[in-house]
Design a protein that fits this description.
By secondary structure, this protein is an alpha+beta fold. It folds into four domains: 165 residues, no CATH class; 156 residues, no CATH class; 102 residues, no CATH class; 195 residues, no CATH class. The chain has 27 helices and nine strands. A hairpin with a 2-residue loop joins β3 and β4. Keywords: Membrane, Transmembrane, Transmembrane helix.
Length: 691
């Protein structure tokens, strides 16, 4: 039996995003580690690697084993072609809309501008760390600081916050189109995430349901929101969902441990690499990978030949990710040590337990849990009880304790604006299931809850083995994330924590349940002499399911999707850079400005930059004299004219090249975000030329 051309094309196209992203990261991350991440070098090794991977790996996707009639995935070839066209149309429409509404977040207030500044540096310079260039300002003058938001000062260098994966991809846009090119890269990555998710739904639910899954994900607010900024979540989503896609294809054929290398082995290695490279993008992916380790143990017990290639690809990706963290982002990991150190210990324990359990069960093989008659039903009931527990959690266990005074103050400020009782230590983590309900509708949450109960029952009965790895990864991530989102709880900010796997998991499981319910109702058609209205029941059920999932999702998304954030920042940044003499050194004399604008001056404008930590006229004059002694023009900068005049004098020739008033995201705690707040950005400068 050969795979129909439509199903083959659908499978190949939806696997391409993960393959391309993995290939790019695999060859360009070493370039960055070696300090050679330049457009020429990346073009010479990166582009051929991506082209070769996209040309060769999809050809290895095998024809599926025959399935029983009526099972998910037996849709005919016409439906596969229709599904592919619809999913592609949804992804393209998503990209177009997000590009049109892309944000211009370059001033660091939260993470997107931090990633943008990381991108600007490596795209322009190709190496890390960032030199402080003290010798071009005032040497080791004790009054100067080089650290700012998302930029850690260590000895005589600066390390940017976060991991390198996302900037390695957004650098492509920077090289092609400067700041604007960089800012519109993430919308394209978000669209590729939608395409990948559609492919996963086509494999696990069936091609005719893939467009619904892709549409719900594309419409939901968090997917649109993170794709309008330079966040890392879209890249992580491609890699982790793509890992599930490639693993599904790799396991479509049974191979033994002793079999010779085949396409199934290559696909398994590609799946493991896709999973592992997620760690190059986000350090918290380490938690999401733990079920993959356990699954490798199950594959070994089942004597499946894909086990070792999957493990090998995973090890390579994780190895690069650990180097990305401890080699290029160590200050960031030090900042996270309170949560990262326990995660590393848990990861080590999971690996050790998997090795021991695999060795202990080696002779007996995979435990035959289906022989325990009560177990499948017990697991299904337990899943429902867990969901009920998350639902009633706010009544029984309100969560407190951020562990950060700054976060406490911010939450208290938002509470005051929202008219809530002021309790700054309130984390709102107990509301996490309701956050999901905000963004995809409570109907989707209900469908997903019923779907996971049914699926777990079937998997324990060994009826749907293709769901084992997806359920292990998705349910583990859903449970741990909902239990402790570990993020400042204002929205839409907190929705970042849900969009990589949690919301896709709910959508996927809800769509599976809708498909199962439709097929169940369609079984009535097998009974003869039924009245005509009965035959319409499956159609009615399907239409209602679509409405239950799509309408609430679209209504919530409408709240903050009608504006662009920080519009005018790109143009203002160009004006600011043009206002600085080529051989100038900038000293920021305003603490309010230093955190957000120093990386912009250093990484985008390319000028040595420092902050005068306790500015006085005497300090300013001394630093300016030091800059002049090096034959360079001195520039003093501040966000307020008064702060600049206080150190430069009343008669100093002030300019304000950066002046932006624009929409910015709101912050809400007990309801979905709507409307927008206002961002005001201002940079005053005074140029003091060398005489």
């Amino acid at each position: 039996m050969r795979m129909p051309p439509g199903r083959l094309l659908l499978a190949r196209v939806t696997a391409l995003p993960a393959i391309a992203v993995s290939a790019w990261l695999l060859v360009t991350f070493p370039l960055l580690a070696l300090g050679a991440f330049t457009p020429v070098a990346a073009g010479i090794v990166g582009v051929p690697a991506v082209v070769a991977a996209c040309a060769l790996v999809p050809r290895l996707i095998p024809e599926p084993a025959p399935r029983r009639p009526g099972a998910a995935g037996t849709d005919d070839d016409v439906w596969s072609v229709v599904a592919l066209v619809l999913v592609l149309a949804i992804a393209v429409a998503f990209a177009v809309v997000q590009i049109a509404y892309h944000a211009e977040a370059l001033v660091i207030r939260r993470d997107p501008a931090s990633y943008a500044m990381y991108t600007a540096w490596i795209a322009e310079n190709g190496y890390l760390p960032i030199p402080q260039q003290r010798d071009l300002i005032a040497g080791d003058d004790a009054a100067l600081s080089y650290q700012s938001l998302a930029q850690y000062q260590r000895d005589d260098v600066i390390w940017p916050q976060f991991m390198a994966g996302a900037p390695l991809l957004t650098s492509i846009g920077y090289w092609l189109g400067g700041l604007t090119g960089m800012l519109v890269t993430t919308p394209v990555l978000g669209a590729l995430g939608v395409l990948t998710f559609g492919g996963l739904a086509a494999r696990l639910v069936g091609p005719r349901w893939a467009p619904l899954a892709a549409l719900v994900l594309a419409v939901c607010l968090p997917q649109q929101w993170v794709s309008r900024f330079t966040y890392s979540e879209p890249v992580t989503q491609i890699l982790l969902l793509g890992g599930l896609v490639l693993a599904y294809d790799a396991l479509a054929r049974r191979t033994a441990l002793t079999d010779r290398w085949s396409g199934a082995h290559t696909l398994a290695a590609a799946a493991g690499l896709s999973f592992g490279l997620g760690l190059v993008v986000r350090i918290d992916v380490l938690r999401d990978l733990l079920p993959v380790v356990g699954f490798v143990g199950l594959l070994l017990l089942a004597r499946r030949g894909q086990a070792l290639p999957l493990l090998g690809g995973l090890a390579v990706g994780v190895g690069l990710g650990l180097y990305a963290g401890f080699g290029l982002s160590r200050p960031y990991l030090e900042y996270l040590e309170d949560s990262l150190d326990p995660l590393l210990l848990i990861s080590g324990a999971v690996v050790a337990v998997t090795v021991v359990a695999t060795a202990a069960l080696w002779r007996s093989g995979v435990p035959r849990v289906e022989r325990v008659r009560w177990l499948p039903t017990a697991v299904a009931v337990l899943a429902l009880l867990v969901m009920v527990g998350f639902a009633i959690r706010p009544l029984l266990w309100p969560d407190y304790g951020h562990g950060s005074d700054f976060t406490d103050h911010w939450v208290a400020y938002v509470q005051e604006r929202e008219g809530l009782p002021v309790e700054g230590s309130r984390t709102y983590y107990d509301m996490s299931l309701y956050w999901v309900g905000w963004y995809v509708g409570l109907g989707t949450v209900l469908f997903a809850s019923l779907g996971v109960a049914l699926l777990l029952r079937r998997v324990v009965q060994r009826r749907d083995p293709q769901w084992v790895l997806p359920l292990m990864v998705l349910l583990w991530t859903v449970a741990t994330t909902l239990l402790r989102p570990a993020i400042t709880p204002d929205h839409p900010w907190a929705s970042r924590r849900l969009i990589v796997l949690v919301i896709p998991a709910f959508v996927l499981l809800a769509v599976w349940f809708a498909a199962w319910l439709t097929r169940y109702c369609a079984a009535i058609d097998d009974v003869r002499d039924r009245p005509a209205p009965v035959h319409a029941i499956p159609v009615v059920v399907a239409v209602l399911a679509v409405g239950v999932m799509v309408v609430p999702t679209a209504v919530t998304a409408n709240g903050v999707m009608g504006y662009r954030q920080d519009v005018g920042t790109v143009e203002a940044t160009h004006r600011l850079c043009d206002a600085l003499p080529p051989d100038s050194s900038v000293v920021v004399v305003d603490s309010d400005m230093a955190g957000g604008y120093m990386p912009l001056l250093r990484n985008v404008c390319g000028v040595p930059t420092a902050q005068l930590t306790d500015p006085t006229p005497a300090d300013a004059q001394r630093v300016v004299a030091q800059i002049h002694s090096r034959g360079r023009d001195a520039v003093l900068a501040a966000s307020r004219a008064e702060a600049l005049q206080a150190v430069a004098g009343e008669g100093a020739p002030l300019e304000r090249p950066f002046d932006v008033t624009a929409a910015m995201d709101p912050s809400t705690l007990m309801e979905p975000p709507t409307g927008h707040w206002t961002f005001r950005g201002s940079v005053w400068v005074v140029v003091i030329p060398v005489e």
